[in-house]
């Protein structure tokens, strides 16, 4: 009977350890993914219900948040980020600053709200140098889903820099506290899991001990017949268990399903490099140059508003400053060495569409007026650049379906706008209504 205890206990322990390790790994991956998006670590799935429960968040269920995510990236991200000021204010805490009954008309037509003399709107408009936010032909449901998405992304380290009310500071404080609570919740779950595992182990050990004690008591009794003794001395037959066709069937099916799932996932991911972040030959930091020192993107990427591709700057451009700045730094000496050897710096390329697709920067930056961050993410905060967007065909098409054309002060579009409005008055004049989803625009 000792052998039962010795054999089954290690199996059980192993099972617990494996389960626990699995859970730990899954939550660590969550945290890593969330961190990359710029949200405070620890604000994992557990935090979502808490934030979504905030008033006027519009029932922030996962579907609404996902829809809001796409709408936000397609329409708002060129000017807004959740936790930092871009062109417009940071939108974190917007439900605390303004009721949803204010947000809906604002997003649909902000100039109307300003014209109506609304104190908050006028003050905000003046604070942002009378820069007009465009009107959006979005439904109430779509705007609420954007708000739900914003609420779900709140709580990063940066304090919101928007807003004008006195309550703003208080809102920011509340948010920081909420962020702290989220991080606390993550730790709390970990501790709970450890306690649960310990309790389970103690339970199993107790049960095994009780079982053995009862057997010892039974063995002491004389009135047992042959069948009772057989049951008493019965051992768990692992061999039979392993050979059982039912078990083999279940394991086989699970194995096949996992294999199928992994297979489909890896086929879908062919050519997908989202998040790709190679180490560069020189520790060049966009955070230091484009962020801290506010050097304009086009100072280095000189062709980005003029031509199809954005160039990577040559060493000469670096020398405009580094002939004077930090000349003793070993990283800067690498630039000098490249120039002496008359060889370009071997930067590793990050973004790379396949040759079958045509993409033109000037069409998007100069003509459409899109910000670099819409597609490349918060480059000005990156020490090392990574590929922020998926760069799949679906990514291009989704934006083309939703993004209104920038027709202002562009004579080329005047007649087209008239034609469009005479036929579908009210419908937004998107890239796709101008043929931007036809195959031949991107493949030829
Ligand atoms: C072209 C830039 C631009 C785009 C695109 C844009 N906004 Fe704005 N937004 C602004 C500016 C600028 C302000 C500040 C007010 C002003 O100057 O009119 C603002 C203000 C706001 C405010 C008020 C913020 C506060 O702190 O009170 C909200 C809410 C808002 N925008 C939501 C949105 C949503 C939702 C979208 C996408 C559907 C969007 N914006 C798209 C530029 C933009
Ligand atoms: C001082 C010069 C400089 C400035 C300013 C600058 N960059 Fe860069 N950028 C570089 C260099 C050098 C590289 C190549 C090395 C690297 O990837 O870090 C690069 C790489 C990139 C890449 C990746 C290219 C690839 O390989 O796919 C993107 C995207 C990018 N920059 C966008 C921006 C944006 C957006 C801004 C403005 C917010 C900006 N850059 C400002 C010098 C600059
Ligand atoms: C417009 C001016 C300007 C240009 C152009 C410029 N830099 Fe810089 N760079 C700076 C400044 C300012 C610093 C920060 C110096 C400091 O920390 O005191 C810096 C710092 C650096 C550092 C960090 C050095 C260290 O050891 O701390 C590296 C590496 C660097 N730059 C590489 C480059 C490369 C590569 C290019 C060309 C693609 C480039 N820079 C172009 C102004 C510039
Ligand atoms: C509409 C989305 C979009 C916008 C806006 C955008 N880019 Fe890009 N960028 C891309 C795509 C897609 C690629 C990959 C192009 C390729 O491989 O042919 C890319 C590639 C790059 C590269 C690598 C060199 C190249 O051309 O392949 C640099 C550098 C770059 N972008 C800088 C910028 C800067 C700076 C801005 C803002 C002035 C900007 N981008 C705006 C989508 C965008
Ligand atoms: C964030 C939104 C956005 C993304 C992402 C985007 N585009 Fe665009 N694209 C636009 C806008 C806006 C225009 C319209 C520019 C104009 O006014 O002509 C446009 C225009 C174009 C055009 C010209 C269409 C025409 O009617 O002549 C092509 C081609 C194009 N995009 C290709 C691409 C490709 C390829 C990708 C993906 C790698 C992509 N775009 C991703 C917003 C986007
Ligand atoms: C807005 C630009 C755009 C339009 C419009 C567009 N595509 Fe694409 N397409 C792309 C891009 C970008 C890729 C490369 C995506 C990648 O590497 O994952 C691509 C890839 C493909 C591929 C190769 C798929 C692969 O995995 O290699 C095929 C086939 C394709 N497109 C067919 C079409 C057809 C058919 C249409 C018209 C119904 C169309 N595309 C319209 C941008 C576009």
Q: Which properties best describe this structure?
A:
444 residues; mainly alpha; Cytochrome Bc1 Complex, Chain D, domain 2; disordered N terminus; binds heme C
Please, could you describe this protein's structure?
This protein folds into 3 domains: 234 residues, Cytochrome c-like domain (Cytochrome Bc1 Complex, Chain D, domain 2); 31 residues; 157 residues, no CATH class. α1 runs antiparallel to α9, α3 crosses α8 and α15 crosses α16. The protein is an all-alpha fold and 444 residues long. The structure holds heme C (6 copies). One heme C (HEC) binds next to α17, α18, α19 and α21. One heme C (HEC) binds next to α3, α4, α5 and α7.
Question: Which percent range describes the beta-strand content?
Answer: under 5%
Determine the fraction of residues in helical runs and give it as a percent range. 55-70%
CATH superfamily of the largest domain: Cytochrome c-like domain
Order of helices and strands: HHHHHHHHHHHHHHHHHHHHH
N- to C-terminal distance: 76 Å
Average pLDDT metric: 79
Q: What small-molecule ligands were found?
A: heme C
Q: What is the count of distinct domains? A: 3
CATH class of the largest domain: Mainly Alpha
Largest sheet: none
